[in-house]
Structures are given as structure tokens and as C-alpha cells.
Amino acid sequence: MSDAPRIIRKKTGNFLEDFKPGQTFRHKGGKTITEGLFTVFTDFSMATNPLCKNARYARAYGYEGLVCPPGLVMLVAFSQTVEDISENARANLEYIDMQYGAPVYVGDTIEVETKVLGVRTSSSRPNLGIVHVQSIARKNVGQADEAIAMAWQRKVQVYKDDESIEVESFQLDPDPVDCDLWLPAYDASVDYKGLAHLSSPDSYFEDLEPGTRIEHSRGRTVTDEHIALTGILDNTSQVHCNQFMIDLAPDRYVGGQLIIFGGIPFVLCLGISGPDVGDNSLGDLIYTTGKHTAPLQAGDTVFAATEVLGKEDHPEREDLGIVKTRLLGHKFVRDEGAEHDDAPAGWKKVTIFDLERALVVKRRSHYA
Amino acid sequence: MSDAPRIIRKKTGNFLEDFKPGQTFRHKGGKTITEGLFTVFTDFSMATNPLCKNARYARAYGYEGLVCPPGLVMLVAFSQTVEDISENARANLEYIDMQYGAPVYVGDTIEVETKVLGVRTSSSRPNLGIVHVQSIARKNVGQADEAIAMAWQRKVQVYKDDESIEVESFQLDPDPVDCDLWLPAYDASVDYKGLAHLSSPDSYFEDLEPGTRIEHSRGRTVTDEHIALTGILDNTSQVHCNQFMIDLAPDRYVGGQLIIFGGIPFVLCLGISGPDVGDNSLGDLIYTTGKHTAPLQAGDTVFAATEVLGKEDHPEREDLGIVKTRLLGHKFVRDEGAEHDDAPAGWKKVTIFDLERALVVKRRSHYA
Amino acid sequence: MSDAPRIIRKKTGNFLEDFKPGQTFRHKGGKTITEGLFTVFTDFSMATNPLCKNARYARAYGYEGLVCPPGLVMLVAFSQTVEDISENARANLEYIDMQYGAPVYVGDTIEVETKVLGVRTSSSRPNLGIVHVQSIARKNVGQADEAIAMAWQRKVQVYKDDESIEVESFQLDPDPVDCDLWLPAYDASVDYKGLAHLSSPDSYFEDLEPGTRIEHSRGRTVTDEHIALTGILDNTSQVHCNQFMIDLAPDRYVGGQLIIFGGIPFVLCLGISGPDVGDNSLGDLIYTTGKHTAPLQAGDTVFAATEVLGKEDHPEREDLGIVKTRLLGHKFVRDEGAEHDDAPAGWKKVTIFDLERALVVKRRSHYA
After folding, report:
1. Do A243 and C299 touch (CB under 8 A)?
2. In degrees rounded to 5, what are phi and psi of residue A145?
3. Which of A163, A203, B335, C2 is deepest in the core (most CB within 10 A)?
4. What is the pLDDT of residues A234-277, one digit of tens each?
5. What interface predicted TM-score (ipTM) does this complex get?
6. Are the beta carbons of C215 and A10 separated by less than 8 Å?
7. Contact A218, B236 (CB under 8 A)
8. Nearest to B198 among C7, C30, C248 (CB)
9. Cβ contacts (< 8 Å) between C36 and chain A: which residues?
10. Quick one: CA dihedral A149, A154, A156, A162, positive or negative?
């Protein structure tokens, strides 16, 4: 070949000016859930529900085997959309109406498509705009058990590639989505009580009281393992894994460090809340809204709390109820000399995550 | 919800005053061994026995497939007991009569129960006491292949929650346990010699000489990966994963750092000893006693040595023998200016682990 | 036992004086590819070809399931040879005629043997010499689907154990090897076009133009995760995992740090090139030559570029073509005050990896 080859610099991902009303992305790749991904992520997340830990328990309940916890389904599905939607994003602003459908098992393959619902530009920040999308994750496309596993909307702040291009705002309504949480039938012949010691004894529907806030006891320090964890999800956003890019412009990034993918604290908060809130859940129904309220970086320790907002009967199942909660994640940062009510002396509590979360929870009357 | 929800702070784990004579814990969770857990842990541990590496070798020997190495079985089983027994512990003092039973395969589910045998208080340290427990790990409870996979006792130093509570000492005898190492039959029709190149050539029963000490050649630096490795085992002890807790009281913890879960050097020492001692073993029979003698922290490099204490015929199998060893783990710490016989100049050797270990080892006469 | 046991210090691996002409090593261990290894390594490597991500895609193409990407096959096979060939090496000098054969799936067991082709001593460095070997990796030895998965030669610089021993140079010809890349048949009844959205749209045979150089957009910072990644491959070389050994003689090692196993940047470069070059490949045919040109250490960020050297028709398949490329890996190091054309101000680009790589690539005319 010649000494001076023609150089091709590929761009990946889309920029603000690329998003068109109603445009649909069928995302590349797809992802088969292996036992490797299942375990690395589920155990990292500190999830404790025996449905994702103990196959005999899961089978007794009517699942095919170990069940992917909601956080894993969410991250696999979400990450499929990153290249097309948010590879060139500044920040993920909001999760909206994130709903779960069919259970996801090891061996299932997730494929995702996303429709562009809106773009909103900002006169004050002409190089950025907000993209509003709706995504649907299906499992096992083209097979007998094809089903919707998840559906959600999100809003994300995306950079322009060429600031001189005028971008017009638009907004479409979201499509109706047929995504209902699959629940195993209650089977009176199953000895649920004989399995009850495997989940926490005080997180049944009867135990969760509206008007309470449960401070979950455990914390988890996140290390630079976050780079590999984000990679294992096929999340390609460079701000999570390319330190050289950050070294070139350290002022653009908090502390000149890689920023931890929001999905990491998302699943950690779900996991940390597990023993108190999720151990006797048969699934997360919907996250009506969710936000990352502060960034997380390697070395930070994640904590979580759950506010129980309300409870209601399940419309079709007397063995189950619906619990509406607010899941809050926080970390502590040094604040020398200061005193705050909600933090040890010299520290300040910073909320990093805020999720409206409805769960389907077993009633003790039927299961323990 | 109201602006001021009622706060619930959940305690996890038991404190010294909670342990009652003969009390039995059926631990939560249970754990199905996936290929993810199997590989991450087995390969981390540097285990080399082809039974846990090479499925065709394991099947030829009469196992169903890849066999979990003893260290993995031990850590999965042990970790199931952490929340109830040692979440609030200061230190694990001793492993006693740790016995292996049925082989554990990928897909098996481990569930554990623990009986409280004793509590011993100390007048000199009124906020602490020693709890003595006996645990049994079963695989595949309720299924046709249900079997005891492990049984052991341990002593652990546990904090009181309320120092003002008087705790009385007690001691029960351990229960007899029916836990015998399963061994595949010797099958003269199998071409064992045709597989012999896959294990080390000099670690047969005939090779291991009482009165020798084998300094295993390899070392392994442990990084902050230990946090994730401990988490993947569902070990919830905060001292291994919550740096913020340590930052609040750094003087309570060595070097103000997270302490590496003892199970990590335990399996590393087993693994490092593999090529010289374990490659031609069909299983570990019993660890009569074992102790962690110094803490390990991220950045330390683990080494190991094996003293061959004795050998004896296997009571029922002429193709096998029993080798009694002492497995020692060590690390080196800086000791500027000092000279020690057993360490490079300027360094001091520190024993971190000490285990009395009996293995069942193949005879070359039958296998190579 | 006595207070003063006899000490045995085992050596592992061979030294320059141990290699004899034509000597063959049947390497220990073997390795079954689990879903844990598959996922941890494949996803770490940033591989994007749906054949290794999406089981329904792989099956539609005629594979049995998820296909191990070439980098994983290579590293598993290569690492099997480390103890015997390069545990006591200073550096791996060259990969030669690395060819792929049968596809490797989860569940397959890889076993490797290596023949010594040559030794070359050096008068200027009497303590070192170059060992030239030829290795063959088979899958599922003794089973119905036994096949050659890979074959390659390499040259490696190995230390003498005893400098006073004279070593004579020798050189044998490599054996002919029957290692042909298995390709699934083109099946006109398969709806390939219906799957085309799952791979990148612009990396077909028609798209790759000789005389171009594609600068792949992504970078990946490697952390001390490299220690565990190398361990998961059963690569036992101490220079990758034993920091104490390096602390004893920091001047012998770059920066007094662990050196990252060359296999790590090797697979990362393959992965980073994926969306632009590998997404529509049915396999890597041969790496005629490859070299690591600079060491990599924790904290470095890996980038890659591909020069398209040439294209040719596939001799037997009109749906496929062969693309000859040069895959280059690089990193940037600080060079304060300097200006280089190919690096940001204050930085210098350092080539770390250089591989002549031929791929079999699908034609858009047949697949999209």
C-alpha cells in the first residue's frame, strides 16, 4: 500500500441534528444473556431476591429458572440504545414510564428498538438539546417465546456535531405499549411456606408501611471496576471508559475522572434495597420517573433509602399487592467543619439517584 | 406522603446477645452455582486441577462435568452464613473440622443451615464474645440428588449491640455429621494414563514426602477486585466493601483500608499450591483447623507453602492415598534495613493463613 | 513433623537450556470455555460482531450458538502454552502464521501442544535466547467433533536458568498444518437481510477500500483488572500478577509496575476495530505476523487503527471476500511541550501493537 493512506475517521453515534421526528432505530448487536453476564452483574448489584439467586426457589414459583433481576434487564436493554441515542450525550436527564414485561432468563436474547419522540433546543446552550425517545426491548425475536421484556422513554441531553446547524424542536406523543409484568400463577399445591426462610421475613406486603422511610443498612464502594461493568453491558459511551479523552480536557469532567455510568448506581440502589423491600417482590411494575441527581466516581460509596409512598391491592391477584415507593441513592462527600443532621460530622449527604418505583409484592398471608 | 416520614433503620445480622444455645439458622438466599461464578472464582484462585478446568477430563474420571474446586464450595457455603453469624463480627477466629461431601457442579444450588454451639464471653473485652457454630451445606434440597456438600464448625468474635446486656457463656457438643467425600470409582476401562499429561507429573501420592516443605513458586497480587469477588459470593460483611464506614473511624481498621475477606487468601493459597500438591487430588477431605493469622489488604501479594505432615493409605481404595499437610499463606511487608533469613533484605515475611489440610491423592501406579 | 523440614523450591516453566529440537509439549490443564469466561473476555474486548453477542443471529448463520471471537480463542489457546514455553520469558517477539480453524463454542474444551522448532542464542546477551515454537490447539479431543481450532508459531525471548550452560542454536522447518477456517454455508433460504440491522451497515466487503486507514473512534483505559483477566486465561506469567517480584527489582521492569499481558491489547485492538472492520466478518483467516511494539500498563488507554492493504475474492465463495489489513494499536504518552502531527499537543503517540490480519468478510450483495 502507499505510504500515505487516505485517513477515515469514523463517527459513532448520532448528534442533536441527526434526530428526526418519528425516526426509528433498530439497534445493532442484540445481547444474549449468558450465565457470565447474569452472575457478574446480579451479584455485583447486591440483589438478594432468591428468584435471582436460587434456581430451585425460582422454579418452585413457576419461573423457568433463575430470573434476571429488574436492574439487569434494564441495563442490558438500555445499553443497546447507547450508541444510537446517547454516545454523544452530555447527560441522561430522565427515565419515564419504564415498564417490565416478560421475565428474562439466561439464554434469552434481547433486541431493542427506539423511536424519536422529540427534540428540544435551548437558546441559552446552542450546542446542546434534549432528545426524547421511546424504546422497546423484545426477547427472543422470531421465536415461539418472543415477548416484550421492557419499554421505556427517556430524555437525554445531546451535543450538536456542528453548532452552526439550526435544529427545530418537535414533540410527538409516545406510542401505546403493550408491556405488562408477567406474573407466575399462584399454585396452592406449591409449598411456598417451606421456602419462606429463603427470603427476608419482614418485607411482605403487610410489612411495608406508607409514610415510612427505610434507611437500608449496607453501603458499597464502587471502584474502577465500573469500567469493565459498563463494558460488559456493551455500553460504549466514552466518558465511562476513555481516561485519555478526559485527560485532554479535564475541566469538562468532574474531578478530571471517568464518570460512572448511571446504570451502576441504579442497580446498586435496587440491590441495596433488596432485603428490606425487594426480597418478596415478584417483579418491578413501573418506574414512572427516575433521575440521576449527582455524578458518581470511583471511590464513592453508594447507600440507599426507600420511602413507602402507598400501597394498593393488585387488581387481579389476592395473593399480591402493589407497593409504590421512592428509591433514593446517596453518597457522602467531605465537608470539613460542617455539621449536617443527616450526615456524620464533617460530611455532607448528596442524593445521587431518585426513582419512583412500584413493585408487586407477595402477601405474607399467602406465602409465609 | 408527609414531609417527615417515620425513619426505619434496619439492623442486619445478629449480635452477641442474640445467639442462643442450640438455635438453628436456616440461612436466606441459597445460591445456584452458575458458569459465571464458577469461572470467575475458580480462575481467580489459580486452581490448576484439571477437574475444574477441563470438562472432558472430569467426565472421564466419572464426574458429571467440571467440578467446583474445594475453595469455591467452601466460599459459597461459608458466605451464606455471614449475614446471620458474622455480619457484626470483629474477626473470624478458627475453622474447625471442615469436611467435604458430594461434588458440586455448575447448576447445583447450595443452601446452608447453622446451629449455635457456644458463646464465650470475656471479662477483659465486655463488648465482644466468641460464638461457636456448626454449619451444614446441602446441595439441591428436595431434589433426587440432594446431598451434603460440606460441613464445618467455626469460631467467630462478635460484637454486642448493647454492651449493658449480660451474656452467659454456654457450650454444646457438635452434632455428628454424615459428610463423606464422594469419590468416583476407579474404572479400569478408562484410559487414565492417556489423560496424565493434563495434570502435573510430580504431585502423585508417591511424590509427596512427609518432612518436606514445598515453597510454591507463584505469587498473586490482590487488588481492590476483592470487593467484587466478595460480593459475588453474597458475603455482605461491610468491612470488605464499605470504605465510607472505614473513613468514619479509620483507626479501628488496619491502615484505614478495607480488609480483604479471609476467603480470598484461603482460596488463593489452595490455588497456588495446586501444581505441587493439588493437581492429582480427587478432593480435599478435611481441614481440621484453620486460621487467618494476619489481615490482607489491596496491593499485598499472596504466596503459599505446603508442609507435608504425613501420608497414609486410603482405607478403602488402593488407587488412592491420604496426604496430611499444613498449608501456609504469607505475604511480605517492608522492614527497612532489616535482614531476615526467610525474606529478601528490607522485607519481613508475615504468615497470613495456616490450615491443616488432608487431601485424597491419586497414586501414580494407577493413573500415570 | 520435624522442626526443620527439607525445603523444596519448585521451578515452573522451562529455561533456554531446556528446549530441544523437535521436542513436543502436551500442555497441562486444557480449558473448557464456560459462559463465564466467554462473557467476561468477549465483553471486555469490546467485540461487536453479533456472532459473539446474539445467539439467534449466530444460529441463523449456521453456527451452533454464540461463537467465540477470534481474540478469545487465541488467548485461551496461547495461554495454555505459557507455563511450558514462556513462564521464564523476557518478551514475546513475534506471532507467525496464526490460523483459525473450527469455530469454538461455549462448552468446548481446548487442549494445546507445542513443538520446538528453533533456538537462537546471542553473543551480546548470553543470558537470553530466542525460542521458536509451533503450537496446535484442538477442541474436544477424542469426541466426535474434535477439530483443530487454531495453529500458530511464535518467537519468544527466554532467559537461561544457568548462564554458564552453553546452548547451541538450531532451526527446524515448521510442520504443515491442516487448519482451515470453517465457514457456514450460504443458505438462500435464510433471511440474512432481515438480520442486517444487527451488524454495522458500512463494513461489508464492498466498503473496505485498499489504501485507506480507518482510525477507530473508541478508546479503552485498562485498569489493574488486567491481573484478573490474565489469570482467568490461566496465563501464569508472574510479570503480569506478582507485584512483590517487581518491587524487589523495580529497575528491571518499566516503571516498576506489572506489565500487561500482550493478549489484553491484542484482543482490545481487535474489539475496537470491530464496528468498522469486523462486524460483517465470518472469521479471521490468518495473522501472518504480529508484534507488541511497546509495553502497556494499568492506566493506559488503548486505541486502534486499521489499514486496508488489499482485497481479493474468496476462492470458493462468491458471497464472501478476503480483506487483508494491518491492525495497529496505540496509546498516548505525555510529552510536555512537544507538538506531533498525530497527537494532541503535549502528547506523543506510541504504537503498541502491529498485526497483519486477513479476514473473511461478507458481501453486501448477499447479506444486506
Report:
1. yes
2. -100, 25
3. A203
4. 998 889 999 999 999 898 887 889 999 999 999 999 999 999 99
5. 0.94
6. yes
7. yes
8. C30
9. 34-36, 39-40
10. positive
